[in-house]
User: Fold these one by one.
Assistant:
Number 1:
Amino acid sequence: MTNLHRHAPLRVALVGLGTVGGGVIRLLQTNADLIARRAGCPIQVVAISARDRNKDRGVDLTPYEWVDDMTTLATREDIDVVVELIGGADGPALTLARQCLSVGKPFVTANKAMLAHHGLDLAALAEKAGVALKYEAAVAGGIPVIKGMREGAAANEISRVYGILNGTCNYILTTMEKEGRGFGEVLKEAQELGYAEADPSFDIDGIDAAHKLTILAGLAFGTELDFDNVAITGIRHVIAADIAEAAALGYRIRLVGMAENGPEGLFQRVHPMLVPLDHPLAHVDGSLNAVVAEGNFVGRLFFQGRGAGDGPTASAVVADLIDVARDEYGDALAMPVAALAQQHPADAGARVGRAYLRFKVQDRPGVLAEIAAATRDAGVSIESMIQRGANQADGVLVAIVTHAGEERCVLNTLERLAGSDSLLQTPMVMHILD
């Protein structure tokens, strides 16, 4: 429904005053008049809560009531909507979400981990109470991909959704690509510049992207959220030689989250992939994010923009608040929870495609023959094989590109080579986006 005559301010409680929380306050101050005209009323922060009252956040917090116990916000009649920006799949964020939705208070969040793990239950609570659960900021920062999928593409059957969902990984990979430097060196620089956390594992191991992919897949396909069945491989084992080989073959390496739905089941994977230069994802550089959705009537949709940071994420949060002010919202997952399909996981081994395999091996006769025999016996057809051995003391690199075939054959190749004293390290497999 749409309320065109609201004039009383929308009163907001803001929980979490990190980078994004400060951005929300600055955005509401800077664009106050424009936001009020678009929302039909002023949007005002009236209460705030965070762990440290004394921390300097670079924004004046004196106009707002500080609340030490954020659980009281759910039942306060002078607060119309709660915004949660503290993060975490469980703990205080989940408790607050359940409290607000259970008593019928609209809830806005940027918490992709919580939604990936508990989104189904939270959507059911919001549906039962008839209130908004909004989360545009949880996926791809300032890119309006949730609204685009839930509303703009609502009439389409989406067969596939995929994209670059983590800006930290994309920054690292594209910097390695442009400057020819190694992963560890670029990661350290990303941490110094603030692109990566002190503990970057959540990003570089693909968990963050997997949370976002889970949400996108549920919206795209009308299926229950299923984080536990996302196959996840991060980028920490991508080396400069992989970047160089990919470039020589006409590809760029990107961490891609991909989900497909069909008769064979629901396929979800986060994995570094070789992306052809003529594909738009190959040209998404730095900390940008991008999402591609393929609909049966609309064709390919491409969303690109800044996927993190105070400005883009705050933009998404405030867009959700404008919707709440207008009373414009539907089911959190684009349809009633009872209508969501329970889909079994697809057998990834049956997928057909090409792959890049990289081995670091002993520099001795017979090694290439050993690898070739393993691929032959596993049913893998080799399109090209490249051997580079600039430093024989450290072994040589062997890179293989396969013809299209079932993925289980590639895995079988690695199983046949497991334990071989010819291999100096675990092989790297990256699938090719065709």
Number 2:
Amino acid sequence: MKNSWNWAGNYKYSASELHIPISVEQVQEVVARSKQIKVLGTRHSFNSIADCTEILLSLQNLNRVVALDTVENKVTVEAGIRYGELCEYLHNHGYGLHNLASLPHITVAGACATATHGSGDRNGNLATVVDSMEIVQANGDMAVYSREQQDLAGSIVGLGGLGIVTKITLDVIPTFQMSQHVYDNLSLVHLNEHFDDIFSSAYSVSLFTDWKNANFNQVWLKRKLTDQVSDQVAPEFFGAQLATSSRHPVPGHTAENCSEQMGIAGPWHERLPHFRMDFTPSAGEELQSEYFVPRQDAYQALNALNGIREHISPHLYVSEVRTIAKDNLWMSPNYNQDSVAIHFTWKPNWEAVKQVLPMIEKQLAPFRARPHWGKLFTMQPAQLRLLYEKLPDFRELLLHCDPHGKFRNDFLNTYLMEK
């Protein structure tokens, strides 16, 4: 592979070969003869979690909807399908998903493998609706993990270490309509007394700040429209003012590539993401980090970051705060805890960001903050391992499924396998 970089352009892959199979049989053949292999999704990881020195395998051609079960309310898809493509299909057939990430450009399998999430007090991360997976094992044979046949809790957020996911089945719900409003300038102090009120005020809530002061620049409220819920909105939201035009989360950027705002109703898949499928997402050339803290500690954690905002803001495009419901998935940052995710979209200067991340991690350490697996962090491996009580069980699962480490790489060996 020559000149193969990730989406943001901050990471260059080191694999010697790239394979793009057109069938599951070809996946099995490549896996069986390989010594080391990893899957390359939409390249939206910002670190080396998806890299290796031997073979990278792209599933971009395995991107079909396999079946829609209207009796059991499930959809089966090939692992290379992106959420934007799946959502269009589901909506056209009268169905939806419970939640979506900010970007519809990412693959279903890649998002589930890293516990990627959206927002909402009652919404688990995207992996929580996985019903079953088909995985190519190290010897090339197929294995099926399902709720009925085998406990999925250890394998769904597999971090690419169990094998190559080729098909995945998800729970679906009836399609629904949503609207989105944005408010400007919410003071951080309002979270102290009104945290639950603010984050329960809509189906999905996001707060954005550039950390130049103790305010959130924007509040994005995504409401599910039903007969019981009116879309009437107040001109003020806990001191924040209703925006009079559409907004981009990053100050100074045009809103044309963002999902529709201003209360205009539309289908769920065109409102839950922040960005449209057919536009360049977010700020484009950027770096990203994210940390998850227990919900009950979120206000204190944000106050701790406010104390070092002069170190954060010069290198930042924007920071986003969202809530995620707890789950039982072993390697999910939301395992057994309702969480608040604090996300950072950085300007593309790794040397500067690398100096700031240890400061952030020090401020968040008292809250046992867990970093996003696919984003940038500097936390020591021994410290990270202490944050996951099921990590020893997951390590045993990896050794059982792949004793010779065909699907492991430096990242997984460093953060999971070394004791």
Number 3:
Amino acid sequence: MHICVLGQGYVGLPLAVRAAEAGHTVTGYEPDPTRCEALAAGSSYVEDIPSSRLQAVSASGAYRASSDPQDLKGFDVAVITVPTPLTDRAPDLSCVRDAGRALAQWIEPGATVVLESTTHPGTTRDVLVPLLEEGSGLVAGRDFHVGFSPERIDPGNADWRLENTPKIVAGMTEDCLRRVKEFYDSVTEVTVPASGLEEAELAKVFENTYRHVNIALVNELSRMAHTLGVDVWHTLELAATKPFGFTKFLPGPGVGGHCLPIDPVYLSHHVKARHGQTFRLIELAQDINESQPDYVVRRLQDSLSRRFRRSVHGARILALGAAYKPGTSDARQSPAVEVTDRLRAMGADVTVVDPYLPVAEGSCREIPFTATEQGVNVADFDAVVLLTPHDEFDLARLADEAAYVLDTRGVMAAAAHIERL
């Protein structure tokens, strides 16, 4: 089939490459000219897709990147994988709308359009479908097929990839569901049919709301345990020995990435705007997790004052990690970046180290921690704050040479000069 994937980021590029490898002819539509040029040159900016894989499907003719909407013509299946960010703390569906308008004029009878972008229940039916029908002059569910299949991409996860992660599929009608399932059966190992579009949309935002709320719970527990003088990390290890009824979550500097800081807000905002009801647990979790970077800064400030009788202002601080999670270059909504920005705003001299990122939201300098020849001398810093525990960081050396470490991830053994969040 001719597959068009609109948006070639962390979600769209893996899908496009996988579809090309599965035997489809794929157009990767990317309106950003810089990204499109990189893809055309065989250079992948998504670490889950090595450039070698991109080059292989490009050389075979199975994949082509384009920023020209005319290249969407004649598609059998079009998948929308564009961002759904927050603007002024409200859901922003402008990219979904733009993608729908771009596709509508090229829809032919029998074609299929699938939305993968995370959003609130009702978006596919109430927002996307009217745009597709208006631009095409056709009727969804009768003349062409519409579906929703939430993305479950976890950047940097080598165990659970696009092809082996169960894929929820939903259709506007039974025939729509059949067409959507046929496509995803060709690129993934397991598909899970949903009874309706809205159930699939709600399942996606709930998956991330579940994680968001539980992370907020352990972040709050971490603060209370510190006040009580109790080791929260050992407490969580003890609780995790229970073989039923408990899932282990860990504290950290906050939540980041393309899902957790955003998706639960889509649900709570939609419920409030449409029905006037407050999703209280989501809003409380959002408050806790959003304040976690400030809590990290306060802990570092208190420790510098208590241990060395000095303030953050003027202190030399080594911040390890800028990505939101280990093993990835993804710095979207990263709490690590928020921590370093706050420290700099308070007058600290902060050196940020992340082997995956030359620049992270304007805040990161590439100084690989293990490359001593590049001038990173741990002993020169008043404090080290470990924000993202990449495997490349030499934690043994850090423990030996640092004057003080605030470990926000609990990956180092506690010691007189090593404090865990």
Number 4:
Amino acid sequence: MEGFLSTVENVNNAINSFVWGLPMLILLVGTGILMTCLTRFFQISHIKHWLSNTIGGIFKDSHVTAHTEKEDTQISQFQSLCTALAATIGTGNIAGVAVAIASGGPGAIFWMWIVAFFGMMTNFSENVLGIFYRRRNEKNEWCGGAMYYLSDGLGSKKGCRQIGSILAVLFSVFCIFASFGIGNMGQINSIAVNMNTVFGIPTIITGLFLMVVAGLVIVGGLKRIASVTEKLVPFMAVLYVFFALVVCVVHIDQFGAVFTSIIKGAFGMRAVGGGIVGSGVAMAVQFGMKRGVFSNEAGLGSSVMVHSSSNVREPVVQGMWGIFEVFADTIIVCSITAFAVLSSGLVDLETGAVISEQVSTALVAEAFSSVFGKFGSAFIAIAILLFAFSTVLGWSQYGSKAFEYLFGRKTIKFYHVIFVAFIVVGATMDLTLAWDLSDTFNGMMAIPNLIGVVTLSGTVMKITHNYVQRKILGQDVKPMLSAIDDIQQLHEKELKTKEETAEETA
């Protein structure tokens, strides 16, 4: 058995080094650059518009947050964002940032920003395609995601029908495996270890408790998951950001040195840990980009599956929520975590070497403890609990949608039961190999997804241009809302009715 596990580990390491190697990082960032150029730098040129229609819309447009009727299987735009953020704002924002700094030096944070900047438009494109190619199942629920725009979008191109179907199946298989690893056992294990270390709670107790709570939420389906995440995500994100900002404010005198360290480390003006300059830059680029992708998942095609369940009619509107998702996850939460760690004296800002003996989550806990004492460590343990558990809820939806695509809607309950049962497994076992395997599957999801985004980039460009013409420039052109004629016609009627109602109200 030991020999078999060793073989699996060696094979996985070989695949993982390719999946998360330089070619993949180039493909991920390259896709973001391509979509940024094709949409004419939408994340900058229309920043006021997308902020107004996402976070701004929460306060001025009741439709953004309004719950759908009980029999309506759709969820609100805000619920779709919270469920997606539930899966992306996780241990990557705490442990991932610490690992990036420890492995790549402060300069890794700069490259995390770069991958997030272009990742905004990758996520935007995924959501646009998700809404444009989504369809209804027999329960009248929306079904969308990379598997649908691969099979129906890429598959509709001349000579690509078979390759589109194959890539859709591969994406779904990789998504299911990743949902059990990074989306379940890895997160639960982080919670159980933290609860045991800080509060002395046995891992089996943590596992059983979380299994019961998760079971009650997950078996209730997407609407119950969404109703939980729309309360949990804003609460935990605001609370975490508040305490992290307090740490930053206490060490405000270090901000100049921190920013200088990030910029110099990114371009090799200072070597990481006293090593050679070229090596330092390579490590900063690699770990910054890799952890950036892990943090916001732009390019993996995961969050689009829940974004596609939104009650929105305009593909670009949901695309803008994708931009905000990456912005909130990496530019805001990860940056504040990084500044809290770097300003706390745990890293030599001259060399980039970590002075503290702590690693991963414990490094962030030590930064918080420098201001809050023992409460700092306890708070991070609670934050990990909330962040990681919400990630489990989000990924349960991703896995169930992939399972539904492969085996039909009637099999979803079976997936839910297995998924919930694995929570106890995750809490009690050594997950080194399981984490490495799921890490690989997570990356392998990106390959078919990015192929779909790149080959359908022209479609994204046309839909975006169409939206800009109508909504920003005020031109009277036919909207591009769905690739399916029946849905296109229905959405056109709904939009027309909404516009007429708005005119009458005005």
